[in-house]
Amino acid sequence: MIDYFNKIFYIKGVDSKIFTPAMAGRLVKTTKSLPGVTIAFVPNPLPPGWVWPQDLWPLLLDAKCALSSLGGTGKHLPNPEILLQPLQRREAQLSSKLEGTITDPPQQVLFDADPRYPTSAQDPNNALREVFNYRRALRSRLDKTNDLPLSLRLIRELHKVLMDGVRGSDQTPGEFRTIQNQIGLPARYVPPPPEYLSETLNAFESYMHSPDDFDPLVRAFLAHYQFEAIHPFRDGNGRVGRLLLSFMIAEWCKLSSQWLYMSAFFEKRKTDYIDLLLNVSTRGDWEAWTRFCLEGVLAQSIDTEKRCERLLELHRDFHARLRSGRVRLSNLVDRLFKSPVIGVTQYSKEVKVTYPTARSDLRKLAELGILEDLNMDPISYYCPSIYGITFEDIEL
Questions:
Q1: What is the per-residue pLDDT for 266?
Q2: What is the mean pLDDT of residues 325-347?
């Protein structure tokens, strides 16, 4: 171990004295160094040797109460997907935004309806595909395309989906890194060297399957810190970590589905999010990190429940406008909450009706103010005659 009391080492210009004796791990020399990087941080295995402070109990109880209320939102709905899918679209965009990938919601919805692979690193479809991939990964357990338990294998599979066909797809998707990486230029944090990954990842996987004395909600955020501190991939660590966090909260807190997503809160307070993660490593400040996360759970649970209420009001309003018991149109309204754009040909094939009948159905909903004709250019790769729910309504 480095004697950090007597020597000063530099992480690309960052004084290692930022690491205090209370740090949540140890400093080691890097053997496959980046230019100017001489040390890296290896986090201690979980759980931390941290005594839960009494003054955090009220916040934990408030957060769990709000989360429980949110978790009951979809229990009595015949089709919770009408709420989950809009929430997941929002999460995919905001988690990607944290990494600097920003897409326009209407453009993203159109891309999701007819996704394609970017043709070059400069292709603007890279950003759209990244958000699309995130949503695919987020839905993989709900769609039963990936029913693996919380594990390293699941983590690798999520990474493979995230990196499918986008920038960074040449950097071993689905495989843990074999090189040293760093966060920031100049580096603000240097995660474990590759020779320490097996040790830290095996301990992390063991923790996911070994309950301790911490509340399950708190455990999810302890594990989120640990994953980000290990930073096991060459790229995409932040997104994989937030995907995993959603899964852990839903599973460990026994929610009826994936109702809580934290990226909106993390993006809104991005500086705090990054600083508090680092402060756990450098100072062992678990209390500030946990307090921040519980405040986020409380805020996001309340915000998401309000969004669900507004979506349900919109759903009821759309059905009331039909004034008809026609099952096909009713099903079409439900379908549009899951995917808010649809083409005439696509709809015709989905419900097995003729093209004129499909066009008549979509025009009927347009006349009722439920859909709008997007007037797509016939020469664009999106098919013409595409209709969509008004974006101002659905992107709440």
A1: 97
A2: 87
Q: In angstroms, rounded to a whole number, what is the distance separating the alpha carbons of residues 318 and 314?
A: 6
Amino acid at 94: L
pLDDT above 90 for 122: no
Contact 232, 197 (CB under 8 A): yes
H, E, C per residue of the chain:
CCCCCCCCCEECCEEHHHCCCCCCEEEEECCCCCCCECEEEEECCCCCCCCCCHHHHHHHHHHHHHHHHHHCCCCCCCCCHHHHHHHHHHHHHHHHHHCCCCCCHHHHHHHHHCCCCCCCCCCCHHHHHHHHHHHHHHHCCCCCCCCCCCCHHHHHHHHHHHCCCCCCCCCCCCCCCCCCCCECCCCCECCCCHHHHHHHHHHHHHHHCCCCCCCHHHHHHHHHHHHHHHCCCCCCHHHHHHHHHHHHHHHHCCCCCCCCCCHHHHHHCHHHHHHHHHHHHHHCCHHHHHHHHHHHHHHHHHHHHHHHHHHHHHHHHHHHHHCCCCHHHHHHHHHHHHCCEEEHHHHHHHHCCCHHHHHHHHHHHHHCCCEEECCCCCCCCCCCCEEEECHHHHCC
The pLDDT score that the predictor gives to residue 15 is 52
Q: What is the pLDDT of residues 80-120, one digit of tens each?
A: 888 898 899 999 999 999 988 998 888 888 888 888 898 88
CB 46 within 8 A of CB 223: yes
Q: Which residues, listed in sequence order, are joined to residue 317 by a DSSP beta bridge?
A: none
Q: What is the pLDDT of residue 16?
A: 63
Residues forming beta bridges with residue 342, ordered by sequence position: 387
Cβ atoms of 219 and 252 closer than 8 Å: yes
Written as six digits, the tokens of 251 are 């599973």
Angle (deg, nearest 10), helices 355-367 and 344-351: 110
Place of tokens 């990474």: 159
Interatomic CA distance for residues 87 and 84, integer angstroms? 5
pLDDT at 337 > cutoff 70: yes
d(CA 340, CA 391): 8
Q: Which residues are CB-neighbours of 381 under 8 A, at least 6 positions away?
A: 114, 116
